[in-house]
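Hi! If you just cloned this repository, the fastest way to understand the data is to look at a raw example. We've pasted two of them here, unedited. The first protein comes first, obviously.
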Amino acid sequence: MLIGKFKSNNPLLHIILFLLAILFWIDSFIYFGNVELSSEHQAPLYTFIYRLLSQYPFWSVLLSFFFMLLQAFMFNRVITNKNLVDRNSYLPALVFIVLMSSSFKLVGLQPFWFANFFLIIALDKIFDDFDEHDTYKEIFNVGLLIGVASLFYYPVLWFFVLIWISLIVYYLVNVKSLLASLLGIFLPYLFVATYYFWFDKLGVEFREWWSFFQSLFDNPLLLTTFQWVTFSIVGVTTLIALVAVYGSGLRDKPVRLRKRHRVLLYFFLISLVLMVIYFEDLYVNRGIAGLSLAGVLAVFFQENKKNLWSEFLFTALLILVLVGKLLQL
């Protein structure tokens, strides 16, 4: 029922999305005192936010709620404007809100909320085929956005791989494009390094940065029963969506759309790898993975002709969210 409704262009859907978001976040507003912000291996730009809001959990929850709504509509605009789903669809926003409301550990101004903001803009630019009129400038801009995003959460730096994969997908690989992407990523770090050098902190901060990237595969899969159930159901749903969309669903689409779908797929796969190798920060990485996963599932729900299956799978996701909320009470 919800899937069918959100495929249509109804002005009331904005209100319905807002009310659903409030419903999913009721437990967060009630138990805001239990919110914990990520305190380990803080990136430079996130350190200031943590110090400012860690003592004010209610404002942290409230601001993250509005960040979620803002990013839901930003992401919906990117996916619909680039024709990955119908232009009048609100499925990307709906799925994004559901995924980002699925755990209490995603609540509060966690670093992924800021990283996702820049990643959405970067993804939009990549979908534009790097603007054929000024290719190297756009490649530089995407690198810059990923560099800034990583200053809120270090592992986002690995998304430079997405730039290079996208260059391959769009047949834009050459020395200049690779250098433009590296320069864009490097520039924000140059300013930060200059700041730390000025205050004699460069050596300490570099060791902290390097130690994070050495902390691979920390804290192996120690999950609760409900977490295992959640990941299993989401995993099966995702696998069905990937097979349906990328198995044969792209054959009749224009070349440009097929390229955009592939970029979205690689975005999701990189996010998945980050969840595995930086398992200690599972929920921060889960927040980043939720961005691309929302796109994949939205495309599946939009394209799937068997509406009963779509409604069944989406209902299963909703039940998981609601059960998780009840367990929190």
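Ok, and the second one:
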Amino acid sequence: MVWLWGSENLSAMLLNATLLALWPVLPVLIVCYARQWMIACRTRPSFALRKSETSELDRAHRLFGRVCERIKRVSQQAEPKTGFWRFFGALSPNAAAPNTDEMDDLHAHAQHLQATIRRLTRLPLQRLSHWTHALR
């Protein structure tokens, strides 16, 4: 059937079909560009942490310091005593074994605080990248 139309007619039909298919592309690109430009104009270019985020970051830093100090104290209490003090520690009935549940809780809390600190410190850079992406 193609051989009846000839090569000239077939190539003209393919060219016309391609141009017809590409006709709506330019208006769609113009509409998308206008939409992105309007979004970029509406977004404010302030990338710093907001007041609530700053206070949350300060709180997380303070809590992380306290948790690290508590981990240090619990691990020092769990260390075996040496020399003369080991003898008296073994005699006392209240010789505390290391509290593994408390250590697990402290480590989990420290990891959560580290994740919060990381997330909050990345916010300004994420806002900048979103803003530059909206400008493109």
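That's it. A detail worth noticing about the second one: The helical segments are 2-5, 7-22, 25-42, 51-78, 84-91, 100-135.
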